[in-house]
Structures are given as C-alpha cells and as structure tokens.
Design brief:
Blueprint: E1 22-29, E2 38-41, H1 52-56, E3 59-61, E4 64-68, E5 74-77, H2 79-92, H3 100-113, E6 125-134, E7 146-156, E8 167-171, H4 196-204, E9 209-213, E10 221-224, E11 227-233, E12 236-240, H5 250-261, E13 265-269, H6 273-276, E14 281-286, E15 290-299, E16 302-305, H7 313-326, E17 337-339, H8 342-350
Parallel strand pairs: 8-9, 8-15, 12-13
Antiparallel strand pairs: 1-2, 1-7, 3-6, 4-5, 4-6, 5-17, 6-7, 9-10, 10-11, 11-12, 11-14, 14-15, 15-16
Helix pairs in contact: 2-3, 3-8
Length: about 350
Amino acid sequence: MSGPDNNFDWDSLTFSLTKTEKMYVAECNQGDAWSPGNILPYGNLSIDPAAGVLNYGQGIFEGMKAQRTANNRVILFRPEENARRFQRGAARLGMPPVPESMFIDAVEQVVAANSSWIPPSGRGALYIRPVLWGTGPIMGVAPAPSYTFCVFATPVGPYFKGGLSAIDLLISEENHRAAPGGSGGVKAIGNYAPGMMPSKNAKKQGFAEVIYLDAVEHKYIEEVGAANYFCIKDNVLYTPELTGTILPGITRESIIMLARHRGYEVNETQVSAEFAMTADESFCCGTAAVISPIASITQGENKKVFGVGGVGVITRELYDALTNLQTEINEDPFGWLHEVNLNLALNISNE
C-alpha cells in the first residue's frame, strides 16, 4: 500500500481533505440484514440519479478520529457512542441501522488500511467519516429501496495551530437550525446545508460562526454552527439540554462527565442568550476542535467579551484534561479509549 512519502510535511496539515488509499463499502436492501462490506480503493462511487439521498436527502454521517498516543498506540475515542448515534439517526430517517459491531469493524479496517496516514503523536489525527446513504432509486417521498454504508478517512492537523485560539461569534436573529419534532437531534446530512449561508454571512462580518437560538421562543441558545455550546458562571457549567433539536454530541457528553469527575457542577438546562451574555467563560465543542474557546458573543448592538484572549481558566483546564486523556498523557478513568489492533484489522480487510 502506498502512503505519504518520507518527506511528507505533517505540520502542513489543516482540517481539510487529503485523499487516502482505501475505503470501506457495504450495501443492503431495505428489509434485509446487513452483511459485512469490503475494503476497496478510494474512489468515485456509481449512483443512480434517482437515488433517495440525491433527491430527498436520506443520509447521515459521523465524524471520528484515530490518533497515535504518547504510548504509541492507535486509539479511537468512544466509537461505540458514534455507532449508537449512527443507529438512532438511521432509524429516524427510515434506513436500516448498521449493527454496532459491523460499524466498529469497518472503522478499524479503514484505520488499518490507511495506517501510514495516521500522523505522529501530537501532530494531528486520522479523521474518519462513516456515511449511510439511501442510494437506491425512488420517485416519491419514501425510503429508498437500497442503501450504501461507506467509511473513508483523511489525515488532519490540529484544529488549533500553536495552541488554543478563541473565536468571535454572532447570535443569529433570523435563522434557526432546527425545530421541535424535526431531525435536529440526529446527524442528518440535510441539517448542514441550511447553515452554510448564515455562516458565510457571519464570516463576512468578521465572525467565526453563528449561534442559533431556539425556533419557538427565539431566546434560548441551541448550537454554535455545528458544535455544542457551554458557558461558565461562578464556576458552574451550563449547556443546553437535549430536547430533540440539538445534536447529542459525544464530546459534549464527555465534557459533562469529565467536569463532574473533576468536581464541577454541570447544569443541562435552557440557556438564554441574556444569561450567556453575563457568563464568565464560554466555549463550544465537537470532534474537530475538541473545545473552541469563545472570545466574544455579539447580539445586535450588544457585545460580550470574555476575559483576555477569551480562553478561560476552566475552559483551558477541561481542554487539557480531555486532550491529555485522548492521547494517554493522563490516565483514562472512564474506559473511553478503544485501541485499534492494526495487524488484526488489516488481516480482516485482506480476507
């Protein structure tokens, strides 16, 4: 298998697509059970113009990372949670859920087949993208007759070059991410395109991203772009509760558990924009950045600036605690790390 040459500049990696060699593909008809797929060369897929995913958006995805730790192991972070969220999303969109064991096997095979693309410890990660599409042709709003489960990967650099970097955010007064009863609580592909223009417009004004408010009362914070939101006031953490309109982020849940483990109180509740503007610290979180400190929040004519540089003491503590756990600099008291046996997974892909 080919891979990066000896002169490959790992430090030049950004969070973007670098094509690797192999991907995993499995197919299933509606009503049938999934059978294990195959490792194939990375490349284009053939798809019918009437595919359910192209016409009606029947598709979901996940984002995961495989990284080398300080102990030179290759680990995944809580892949079982990704597998379970993937199943919930499939069920919500009328697709056959991929069994948890098959999902994790597929991810491990892709990591092993592209192991030469895993950056050295501390210099990035192999970002993994599992996707499930309704690829069978369908005319009429109904579940597709057949489905494709695909997993591919790309090496990415650290989200923050040179350490934590705080971002400026704009509260959106006109656009909403999701409404009660919709698909905001699953990682559906259709949730992301509507956010592209609000994000682009915010960036034109000098902001990194938008904060979405709830679609009913227009006063409670839901998400930051495609990330979960936290704020800290008087050493207590607050984060929007899961009501079906925001994504149940795995990083979000991990931060809640880690903060409580370290003695902090965490409230999952409604967080009004008014309250957020009085907080001592704020951050958002997700797989890509782990934690993104918030330097300021702007709502209309009002602007709240958080400290010097926007990186609060507790925000930094939680970022260091989680990233050090993920790279085995610190102990993992929760059993979150899942080692990938590259040789075993590679043997599976070669069978």
